[in-house]
Amino acid sequence: MKILTFTTLYPNAAQPQHGVFVENRLRHLLAGGQVSAWVLAPVPWFPSVNPRFARYAAFARAPRRERRHDIEILHPRYPLVPRIGMRVAPYLLYLGARRALRRMLASGYAFDLIDAHYFYPDGVAAVMLGRAFDRPVTITARGSDLNLIPDHALPRRMIRWAAREADGLITVSAALKRRLVDLDVDPARIMVLRNGVDLATFHPIDQDVARARIGLDGRVLAMVGNLVPLKGHDLVIAALPELDGVSLVIAGDGPESTRLKALAAGLGVSDRVRFMGRIAHEALVDVYGAADALVLASSREGWPNVLLEAMACGTPVVATPVGGVGEIVTAPEAGILMTERSASAVADAVRTLFAALPTRAATRAYAMKFEWGETTEGQIALFRRILCRDAPRREDAGNGTLSSDAHLEDEPGNLSMTLPP
């Protein structure tokens, strides 16, 4: 089977950790040899690589084409429009990707199926591309695409349209499946295929050695993630005055950095908080390995991979019971769920965990249940069903030229918007 992975959430040379969870699932899918894939990962257009534009300059530095892990990846550009960008993003993404798909087909990669990740705008644009190129489409929901974006009326209508028109629907947790059902999608059409963890990359290491590498000792908590409000770094820092002798190491960067450092100083715990900034994904083994527990204090999540990565390193977790977290943390050896999202709840949960800390071997054994095999088998089975059902249409489609559906007269939400062929 030849598939086209379509998503804006995919690593590139300028942003090597962006969407690494999508890349990981694809790598494990391809490892069995039953599927081949190219990746179409559009990047927002930006005119300058000047570092003063921060993350926007990284878009400009992303290559147009590259290979990662022996996978061919294209990064066509698409425009983002200030203020109204969210409303028109699927159309702009579609238009930016369409030309690249034509070139891909002309080069000889006649893919059988579009496998899209993230419902909005990626999934909506993928369905448009599927209709234009006569290819079936699957969409995987991953978190904020269903937990947050459907709160806006127009994206909600487009997500419903894409869910209705897609040939296959995947969510990475049962919680996200419930969100999709709440949008009036037939539950029988939704397959739950949770993310796995790379047990070779994330594995137990000597804790003393890991602590020496990052200069920590005593009881250590770790947080891994972007420094943004929804991740709750401030709650964990605020819990430290209640946790004598406990240090916190934070891997990640973002707009909250200055505020969080000021908070630590104001609470008198700066000497117990280590900000490491953004580090390479594989280097997180040292962070997990040095910690006695990973803390995730998020206000919302889909299927947080950091929990599985930490547990694969033998490190139990303390987490808020949001999204798919309750499907991950189901036994004492995995860790503990907070009773609420607050600094005092963080402190209570940490004390409870430390009072009966599981062995690192037990936590690692728990994580081994989340290897990738079941997810890979589920994807292959779904793709085969879709392609067998779709075979007559694909034979009629011939060489992949645009069909009459490219006009898209019944655009999502009956918006009566016609896209040029």
Would you kindly provide a written description of the structure presented here, covering whatever features stand out?
The chain is α/β, with parallel strands linked by helices. The chain is built from 16 helices and 16 strands. It has two domains: 2-196 and 373-414, Rossmann fold, CATH 3.40.50.2000; 207-370, Rossmann fold (3-Layer(aba) Sandwich), CATH 3.40.50.2000. 41% of the residues lie in helices and 16% in strands. The strands form three sheets. Strands 4-5-2-1-7-8-9-10 form an eight-stranded mixed β-sheet, sandwiched between helices. A six-stranded parallel β-sheet has the order 13-12-11-14-15-16, sandwiched between helices. It has a two-stranded parallel ribbon with strand order 3-6. α4 crosses α6 and α12 crosses α15 (360-367).
Question: How would you summarize the topology of this molecule?
Answer:
Blueprint: E1 2-6, H1 20-31, E2 36-40, E3 43-44, H2 55-61, E4 65-68, E5 71-74, E6 77-78, H3 85-107, E7 113-117, H4 119-133, E8 137-141, H5 144-147, H6 153-165, E9 168-171, H7 174-182, E10 190-192, H8 207-214, E11 219-224, H9 233-239, E12 246-251, H10 257-266, E13 273-277, H11 284-290, E14 293-296, H12 305-312, E15 317-319, H13 325-328, E16 335-337, H14 343-355, H15 360-367, H16 373-397
Parallel strand pairs: 1-2, 1-7, 2-5, 3-6, 7-8, 8-9, 9-10, 11-12, 11-14, 12-13, 14-15, 15-16
Antiparallel strand pairs: 4-5
Helix pairs in contact: 3-4, 4-6, 8-11, 9-14, 12-15
